[in-house]
């Protein structure tokens, strides 16, 4: 009698697997594909894991197709959520091929340029500095800067030209 029970259970398991693969594999694959941002390898893994869990829980599953579909979709969604959480919890590791040549960014040139520009801007007249401040720092147009400074637009343009020319020359001289 025990052998007949095992045979009957094996037959039911085989019917369940046939039903799962035949009716639900494609539907499950398409739904999981969206959840995994179209990562086909991950989708295949999730679908396989979902179907394995269905087989492991075969004695508890209701064999009605609507119930099976809901159960499969829920399990697959939870597997994907667990996958996303584990990917967020631990940053991706990157292998450093040769640790002896690990480079850190060299900001020396940029720092030197900032120092030179700061020094040159300090040497400019107040009028030239204010023209640069109004246009380049505050982002005003020449017309707006002219109104704020109380001078004609042409004067603002002239001051900007002279100031930028002085800054460029200083950068060329120091490089």
TrEMBL record:
One Pfam match: Sigma70_r2
Domain called RNA polymerase sigma-70 region: residue spans: 20-89
CDD domains assigned to the protein according to its UniProt record, in alphabetical order: Sigma70_r4
Domain RNA polymerase sigma factor 70 region 4 type: from-to ranges: 117-164
Keyword annotations: DNA-binding, Sigma factor, Transcription, Transcription regulation
InterPro entries documented for this protein: RNA_pol_sigma-70-like, RNA_pol_sigma-70_dom, RNA_pol_sigma70_r2, RNA_pol_sigma70_r4_t2, RNA_pol_sigma_r2, RNA_pol_sigma_r3/r4-like, WH-like_DNA-bd_sf
Family: Belongs to the sigma-70 factor family. ECF subfamily.
Designated name of the protein: Sigma-70 family RNA polymerase sigma factor
Organism of this sequence: Lentzea miocenica
Phylogenetic lineage: Bacteria, Bacillati, Actinomycetota, Actinomycetes, Pseudonocardiales
């Amino acid at each position: 009698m025990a052998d007949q029970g095992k045979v009957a259970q094996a037959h039911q398991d085989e019917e369940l697997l046939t039903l799962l693969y035949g009716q639900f594999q494609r539907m499950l694959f398409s739904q999981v594909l969206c959840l995994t941002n179209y990562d086909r390898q991950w989708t295949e893994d999730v679908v396989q894991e979902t179907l394995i869990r269905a087989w492991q829980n075969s004695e508890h599953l209701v064999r009605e197709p609507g119930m099976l579909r809901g159960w499969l979709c829920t399990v697959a969604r939870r597997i994907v959520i667990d996958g996303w959480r584990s990917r967020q919890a631990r940053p991706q590791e990157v292998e450093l091929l040769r640790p002896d040549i690990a480079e850190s960014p060299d900001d020396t040139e940029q720092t030197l340029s900032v120092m030179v520009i700061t020094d040159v801007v300090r040497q400019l007249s107040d009028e030239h500095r204010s023209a640069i401040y109004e246009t380049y720092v505050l982002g005003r147009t020449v017309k707006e800067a002219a109104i704020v400074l109380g001078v004609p637009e042409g004067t603002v343009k002239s001051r900007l030209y002279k100031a930028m020319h002085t800054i460029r020359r200083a950068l060329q001289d120091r490089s």
